[in-house]
């Protein structure tokens, strides 16, 4: 079992170094912007506006669902996985740290799993789980989540397995919260129909 884990870690490091080495001056700038969470504030505002436009007064419960998914996936990734596994980020790893191409800062000491991956994939799935009236553009969020997560490898702060693990945490969080959200949403719709 230990041999399998060590082999997986070795492959993960090799793949990371190959992906991280594919850089140019202009992609450094682009990925630096993509990986910055503040870059995407307009996207989040657009999401909320789209939900309000699509669902009207019931948009609040949809927004709470999305916030819940992001909060849960971030807490599982940063509050549980990182301190539990204590796997160093590539840029903090004494084995390969000197080989890492860093675009900006390295961040905290631990990287498994990626919070960027967990929150973005959780958000993408959550929006696509919305009942009855799916947003026409929501499937594109999977591509956004992939690029956003890949930027963490490019900028030298996460291994590929950190990204995969984070994505799975996000998927779990969205599915876990979908059932109570779906119940509350149906209950809210029933109350609205009775009032009419």
From TrEMBL:
The chain crosses the membrane at residues 29-52, 59-81, 163-184. Coiled coil: none annotated. Residues 62-178 form the Phosphatidic acid phosphatase type 2/haloperoxidase domain. Pfam families: PAP2. Keywords: Membrane, Transmembrane, Transmembrane helix. InterPro entries: PAP2/HPO, PAP2/HPO_sf. This is Phosphatase PAP2 family protein. It comes from Arundinibacter roseus. The lineage of its organism: Bacteria, Pseudomonadati, Bacteroidota, Cytophagia, Cytophagales.
């Amino acid at each position: 079992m230990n041999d399998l884990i060590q082999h997986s870690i070795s492959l993960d490091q090799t793949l990371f170094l190959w992906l991280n080495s594919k850089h140019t001056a202009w992609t450094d700038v682009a990925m630096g912007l993509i990986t910055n969470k503040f870059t995407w504030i307009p996207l989040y505002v657009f999401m909320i506006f789209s939900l309000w436009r699509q669902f009207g007064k019931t948009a609040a419960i949809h927004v709470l669902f999305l916030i819940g998914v992001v909060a849960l996936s971030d807490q599982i990734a940063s509050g549980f996985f990182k301190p539990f596994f204590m796997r160093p980020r590539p840029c903090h790893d004494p084995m390969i740290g000197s080989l890492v191409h860093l675009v900006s800062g390295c961040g905290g000491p631990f990287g498994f799993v990626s919070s960027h991956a967990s929150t973005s994939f959780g958000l993408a799935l959550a929006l696509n789980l919305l009942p009855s009236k799916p947003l026409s553009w929501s499937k594109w969020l999977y591509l956004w989540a992939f690029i956003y997560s890949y930027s963490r490898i490019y900028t030298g702060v996460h291994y590929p397995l950190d990204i995969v693990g984070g994505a799975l945490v996000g998927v779990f969080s969205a599915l876990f919260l979908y059932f109570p959200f779906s119940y509350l949403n149906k209950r809210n719709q029933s109350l609205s129909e009775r009032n009419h």
